[in-house]
Amino acid sequence: MLDGVSLDQLRGFVAAVDEGSFSAAARKLRRSQSVVSELVSGLEAQIGVALFDRRGRYPVLTTEGAALLADARNVIGGVDGMKARARGMATGLEAELAVVVDVFFPLEAITRAAREFREHFPSVGLRLYVEALGAAYQPVIDGRAGLGIVGSLPVMPTHIKAERLTAVRLVMVAARGHPLAGYEGVIPQQELARHVQLVLTDRSDLSRGRELGVFSPQTWRLADLFAKHAFLLDGLGWGGMPLHLVEDDLAQGRLVRLAVEDAPTDGLVLPMHAIYAAATPPGPAGRWLIERLRACPREVVPLSSGSLRRDDVASFPGHGWVPPKAWG
């Protein structure tokens, strides 16, 4: 009966294949050769299939044995993975880490961290959300995510704890052929108001009623940052973008940086935070990810940089000072 197949039998079968003989498999498993032979013979009897041709000096895998080898490996790997996950749970390691990432945060940094995360925590599943503005907080607030990598929010929920990580620089841009691209000097607000401003809108209600960085009464609102990027490239309006997302466009002349009245010439600096529910702080995997993301790529701005001025920082109550026209 197949229900009688044991893990020891499967390990003996796989070891015999990998080592090339029952004697070598016995040495690997630290068992006697007779025990390994009995394990494989017992497995063959249980499943009703000959796994090895034993007529030669060394056992040779049969066609049926070769077909079943991958199944045996999968069973062993699944059991070993379950045991590793259970050991991790016993020590507080998360079974799964659900993370929501602000769309402004460089995804290249997230993918590099995820690659290392897989090496450090192979038994921990990873669930990733990408959102913008208040919607990046929502999965943490409602418990769908245990950790958020987010920008600032006008009002920080009292049960959410935040840790500073780094910052992202935001710049105002327009397409090369846009009327504002040829404006010489700092563009006054009355001129900005004559053109459609592309504004990233919040999919949540957390910033309801707050207009942050809207200079123009003519606005097109998009809930997706990459759609906004496409609209900017097509000359459908002007607006703010994370510098790391438009560096190539600026270098190739597809977009032009705008000097905007009441905005720092070097762009705004948006602090980024790790957030989580105070009652359920991150476990070992979540804490590792927080510390890993403190090591920022070149696209982000270290908060310790002495070159940052107070007027450059785009932030909100609960995190710091609010500059005029901080968003767009």
TrEMBL record:
Keyword terms: DNA-binding, Transcription, Transcription regulation
Signal peptide feature range: none
Superkingdom of origin: Bacteria
UniProt-listed Pfam families: HTH_1, LysR_substrate
PROSITE patterns: HTH_LYSR
Gene Ontology MF terms in the entry: DNA-binding transcription factor activity; transcription cis-regulatory region binding
Similarity field: Belongs to the LysR transcriptional regulatory family.
Listed name of the protein: LysR family transcriptional regulator
Lineage: Bacteria, Pseudomonadati, Pseudomonadota, Alphaproteobacteria, Acetobacterales
